[in-house]
Amino acid sequence: MMVRRKAFGEFLGTGLLVVTVIGSGKMATNISNDVGVQLAINAVATVLSLSILIFIFAGISGSHFNPVVTLSEFLRHKISMTTAGAYLLAQFLGGFLGAVLANLMFALPAISPSHHIRSGGHLWLGEVVATAGLLFLLMVMEIEGKVSAAPLVISGWIGAAYFFTSSTSFANPAVTFARSWSDSFSGIALRSVPAFVLAQLMGGCIGVALASLLKKGAQPHG
């Protein structure tokens, strides 16, 4: 029952995150033709939603909402294989249904595959940087005993990375996959997803490795 409750938290959290990303992207294109304004609207909505979701679900599931975070926790023996598997399923399913809900809210077909090709080494590098930074910050907060700051720190990083990375900071395989089912401002063509996910996994490994260097000799907290 405990695993189910945690997985349900991941399902809801990831789903609501995707609703925010896709919904705000669609709203942005409805009210402005300026791409900069559209990106700003999308980023602000994501930052606000992500900070709230992390705060609300932290005590339920740990607020992963991201397969890279879940895999990191599993490989570092923080969660069991059963919990990791449940989280991954919940994240992808929640993300997909979040995309469906966002599509329906804006009178799009429930399943509306994106035609937005996002490909190229510069975009993949952006995803490596965005995801490496995310995992690095998560681990450093853990090392320093500052996990309570996660709602501010993580949402702040993602919001900033919307503007300083070439890829606009997807940094999440489940959300990336979900965004492939909405042919909107926030979408990504399904054929572009595998390379993005690979870059995110690479970034996650780099982030963990960098944080591990800081962990050596650090005093334990909590």
From TrEMBL:
- Gene Ontology terms: biological process: one-carbon compound transport
Q: Which Pfam families does UniProt cross-reference here?
A: MIP
Q: Does the keyword Transmembrane apply?
A: yes
Give the transmembrane region(s): 43-65, 86-111, 123-140, 152-175, 195-214
What is the membrane topology listed in the Swiss-Prot or TrEMBL record? Multi-pass membrane protein
- List, alphabetically, the GO terms of the cellular component aspect: cytoplasm; endomembrane system; membrane
Which one of the record's GO molecular function terms can you name?
Answer: water channel activity
Write out the annotated subcellular location: Endomembrane system
Q: Which UniProt keywords apply?
A: Membrane, Repeat, Transmembrane, Transmembrane helix, Transport
Please report the name of this protein according to its UniProt entry. Unannotated protein
